[in-house]
Write a structure and sequence with these properties.
Number of helices: 17
Strand content: 5-15%
Structural class: alpha/beta
Distance between the termini: 14 Å
Bound molecules: protoporphyrin IX containing FE, iron/sulfur cluster
Strand order of the largest sheet: 6-5-7-8
Helix content: 40-55%
Oligomer: single chain
Mean pLDDT: 90
Length: 531
């Protein structure tokens, strides 16, 4: 059931994202920058909030007047800042919800990756509490409505001795102290939110916390345009002698408020509790089958730290050398953070398929899918190819080409294949061309696999693809599992191009003894990761 919902959502995102990628380029695709945009809008809310505070009077009597004053008398700076503050916080909700759905659709929340998901739950609560307390401060009719409904909701819980809704019976009962508490909360809760946002990304390396500059400028321009077109305004001063008859709601922050009148407070709490429980349990519904984590082979580790640099999940640390070898450090894997993506294997300078030894060893390897197995599978798959135009496909198990049956070697992430493997395939005449086929460019399942592969091929990142490897014989295809057709036709076009090329000048053909039948590619059920 959950798998089916995930599939539908993923299809939906895929349909929306491809035009976005064409319009903005994969790097600027806003759907691939949602977390970064969330941070960006947080900073806008924080800066505009500090600016508004200069003009704001925290006393209950004067709060409304001070907000009116800044909105109308200083409309070109403080007024605009008020709109910025309002709309950027609305956008934070939008970003958060779409980000949650996208991470869910990409299955980025189970197994070792539960941490970011679970820390997302307090983020949802804290963001809502920040927004709702903000509405109280304006002390207009909407604030009055929010204050009454919120306190009735809180009173339903057996926490407070005295019902707090009593504060809002008349002007006399609402004290400035209570109002000051709200001001304090509206400052303290967002600070705590920022702290949890920082925790949220602790277990991933190089988190995208700043959107690309063009996207940031476009978002700012859009905010300015909306602020000018529809400035944030108050809805008439609160009057505790009357019940607000009709107020314009902010549907981003207050969608449940009308439901308290229809369902009752108990039902709204039940809904919130069920939602939180569901989010809290989801990483284990069902749990992800965990492959064994990467292991270090100290005899082949020179402490170069490339694996630690490339690991997308902060799973590798460099620690002092323990085996007396003349290197200051060695790599150490934190098994509880490792998702077994194999990207470190592709980064290690010892991962050299050219080594003649039968037992191919490297500095860091996956116990269940070693470099040796990868080399064997490559050699075997290449052996099934027919001339002319022999094309071998190295495919990520999360991308479109994973389902291909012909001459395709599937692995947890294409960045597991060191560039020397491609050199090996071409220079040993195992194939006439190699396709590296991974996830869609802006939706890499292992976050950085596509990026590292591109950079290694472009000679911008160690380990480089050597200059001697003929580039016209290598193609990359980035496509999600829903784009099988696109991947197949790209591979077919490349095969036709390879067939037209003159034969390669060979350096060192493979000895016949190296070609033996390897274990199979991983089974599809195993690849999906459901237990
Ligand atoms: C304002 C709210 C939020 C902000 C600013 C935010 C920010 C971020 C950022 C910057 C990343 C790293 C993205 C990357 O570089 O790949 C991230 C990842 C993630 N977030 Fe959020 N997030 C928010 C809310 C949430 C919520 C509510 C959930 C879910 C309940 C959630 C779940 C995740 C997950 C599952 C990941 C991916 C971790 C991975 O790839 O292993 N986030 N978030
Ligand atoms: S397998 Fe992936 S997650 Fe594990 S240590 Fe290597 S790069 Fe990091
Ligand atoms: S990349 Fe290889 S050699 Fe370098 S630190 Fe990691 S395991 Fe050791």
């Amino acid at each position: 059931m959950i798998g089916a919902i995930r599939g539908v959502l993923r299809a939906g995102f895929s349909v929306i994202e491809r035009p976005f990628e064409r319009l903005f380029t994969p790097t600027l695709n806003p759907l691939a920058q949602l977390g970064a945009l969330g941070f960006f809008f947080f900073w806008i809310v924080a800066v505009s909030g500090i600016y508004l505070f200069i003009f704001f009077d925290t006393g209950i009597e004067r709060a409304y007047q001070s907000v009116e004053h800044l909105t109308w008398d200083y409309r070109f700076h403080a007024g605009v800042m008020r709109s910025f503050h309002r709309y950027a916080s609305d956008l934070m909700v939008v970003m958060m919800v779409v980000h949650l759905l996208r991470e869910f659709s990409l299955d980025h929340y189970r197994g070792v990756r539960w941490f970011s998901w679970i820390t997302g739950l307090p983020i949802i609560w804290l963001l809502y509490v920040s927004g709702i307390t903000g509405y109280w401060l304006v002390w207009d009719k909407l604030a009055q409505y929010v204050a009454i409904v919120s306190s009735e909701l809180l009173d339903w819980l057996p926490i407070f001795g005295e019902p707090i809704a009593r504060n809002f019976i008349s002007t006399g009962t609402l004290t400035s102290r209570f109002f000051s508490l709200m001001v304090f909360m509206h400052v303290a809760v967002p600070l705590f939110l920022l702290f949890i946002m920082w925790i949220h990304i602790l277990r991933i390396s190089r988190p995208k916390m700043n959107p690309p500059r063009t996207l940031a400028i476009l978002s700012l321009v859009a905010l300015v345009a909306v602020s000018v077109w529809k400035p944030a305004l108050s809805q008439g001063q609160a009057d505790l002698a009357t019940v607000p008859a009709e107020v314009g709601l902010d549907w981003f922050y207050l969608p449940l408020y009308p439901l308290t009148g229809i369902w009752g407070n108990g039902a709204v709490w039940a809904f919130l509790g069920a939602f939180s429980l569901m989010i809290g349990l989801m990483p284990w519904l069902p749990p992800l089958r965990r492959a064994k984590p990467a292991e270090i082979d100290l005899a082949h580790c020179n402490g170069c730290a490339r694996c630690a640099e490339d690991c997308p999940y902060e799973a590798i640390r460099m620690v002092p050398r323990s085996d007396g070898m003349p290197f200051p450090t060695q790599a150490a894997v934190n098994a509880s953070l490792c998702v077994s993506c194999g990207i470190c294997v592709g980064a290690c300078p010892s991962s050299t398929p050219f080594r003649r030894s039968e037992d191919l060893r490297t500095g860091i390897d996956l116990p269940e899918y070693s470099l040796k197995m990868l080399r064997e599978r490559v050699i075997y798959a290449a052996g099934t190819l027919k001339k002319p135009g022999r094309v071998l496909v190295l495919a990520c198990e999360h991308g479109a080409a994973a389902g291909r049956l012909d001459a395709t070697v599937v692995m947890p992430c294409v960045a597991m294949a060191p560039p020397s493997l491609i050199d090996f395939v071409l220079s040993r005449d195992l194939a006439d061309g190699v396709v590296v086929a991974g996830c869609a460019e802006s939706a890499c399942y292992n976050r950085l696999g596509v990026q590292w592969t591109e950079q290694r091929f472009a000679r911008q990142r160690d380990p480089y693809l050597r200059a001697r490897v003929p580039r016209e014989r290598i193609a990359t295809v980035w496509a999600s599992p829903l784009e099988m057709g696109k991947a197949q036709s790209a591979i077919a076009d490349f095969a036709a191009h390879i067939a037209d090329l003159p034969p390669m000048r060979l350096r060192s053909p493979l000895p016949v003894s190296a070609v033996s039948r390897p274990g199979k590619n991983r089974e599809p059920a195993e690849l999906k990761g459901d237990s």
